[in-house]
Amino acid sequence: MYDMKNLNRLKTIETNAPEAMRAFRAFDQAALADGAIPVKYKELMACAVAFTTQCPYCIEIHSKKARGAGASDKEMAEVVMVAAALRAGAAVTHGTHAFPDPHE
Length: 104
What we know:
The protein is an all-alpha fold. The chain has a domain at about 40-95: Up-down Bundle (AhpD-like). The chain is built from five helices and no strands. Helix 1 crosses helix 2 and helix 3 packs antiparallel against helix 4. The longest helix has 23 residues, at about 75-95. It is extended. The model has no long low-confidence stretch (mean pLDDT about 95).
């Protein structure tokens, strides 16, 4: 199902929604551009988000960009563990909804 060739289909979206796609691309570029946070760290953040959303396209794209910006194996491994901690933490905190409020 997931194949990087599928991204060629973005052209179909662009053909049918050109203004929105241009706006999205401009936003994406601006959000990931070097600024107060350097590109390497933005790409590592993008990797963490991709690991938690489990988007294989984003994982491939942003891990390559992070590596290109100088991210090391140690940094990537820590990003994996941060993403895992957040995902696990979300399961634990969402689990609280399965219990009655002790104050009611």
